[in-house]
Amino acid sequence: MTLYGIPPAPFRRAMAPDTGRDHARHIAQDALAWWLENRGGTSDLSKAVGTLAALALAAPSSPAGPDYGPLLLPLTDEEVTDVLRSIWNNLWAYNPVLTETARPLHEWLAHPSDDDIRGLSDYTRILVRAGLLEYASDLTRCEDEDLIGLLVQRMRSYADRQQAGQFFTPAIVANHHAEILLSEPIPPGARLIEPCAGTGTMVRAAAATLRFQGTDPAVYQWWMNDVDEIHVACCAVNAVLFRLGPNVTVSRGNTFRDVSELEQDAQARADRAISEQRRTPILYPTRTRPLRWPR
């Protein structure tokens, strides 16, 4: 039995790749292939990554949660755009600071052109059929590979990454590094800092290591920093997907300069986001009910 062209969620989970790493690579490959074939290139990075990030945020908080796949598949481009707005509105109500930090991934939704939303419904169907909802609802899979960072890496050419000095750490290397760094107990409340976070690969590995040791990552203070605005936006989303808890700071700047300036800037941006959310509870006007409340 299928619903709107896909099997029910339990069957999709059973058919998913064995590991989170393989699953993430499958999703990223399908997403990139669709974007290259239908949008003619990778210049719309914020839209491709932002759509994937939003749908990942909308996934159930556990594999046993409701199945949103059949609800997403029949939507039109305009309806998908409205759903994306609703998802970011949810995060805006739940955590305005991270939502503001992730703005490069969703600000295009304020006034999208016809070309901006062209094919978003097809792209959404590709992501759903590739198992994005099953991946994002399973914390073990999320911690196995940084899916969002993987898509960013594949959408940026090798030449672009070299020019920007971007070198992505492979997941297996990050895992071993985290195991070494966290081999000694760390007291709750300690601040864990990643000054060159990229999209959060090392933080992903650190959170996974802590959970393996029986410690909840939410008892620590996390600080991720990078100079690339897309990377910083991805860190904000990954902070939710990796369930790092309420004590997360994501900043953008050069850590070779005065770190106190980064901290002051991050605090000022957080204060502005909270004040703005109180004045404007709805980030984007929508006509649909949100799929779910963020984690």
Residues in helix, %:
55-70%
Number of strands: 3
Question: Any low-confidence stretches, pLDDT <50, length ≥5?
Answer: none
The major β-sheet equals: 3 strands, parallel
Order of SSEs, N→C? HHHHHHHHHHHHHEHEHEH
- The radius of gyration over CA amounts to 18 Å
Strand order of the largest sheet: 1-2-3
The rough form would be described as globular
Q: What is the CA–CA distance across the termini? A: 30 Å
Percent range for β-strand residues: 5-15%
Mean pLDDT: 88
Category from helices, strands and their pairing: mainly alpha
* Total DSSP helices: 16
Structural overview:
This protein has 16 helices and 3 strands. It is mostly helical. Strands 1-2-3 form a 3-stranded parallel β-sheet, with helices on both faces. Helix 3 packs across helix 5. The radius of gyration is 18 Å and the shape is globular. It starts with 8 loop residues before the first helix and ends in a 16-residue tail after the last helix.
Q: Topology of this protein?
A:
Layout: H1 9-15, H2 20-39, H3 45-57, H4 69-72, H5 77-94, H6 96-101, H7 114-117, H8 120-129, H9 132-137, H10 139-142, H11 147-155, H12 158-164, H13 171-181, E1 191-194, H14 201-212, E2 221-226, H15 229-241, E3 248-252, H16 259-279
Parallel strand pairs: 1-2, 2-3
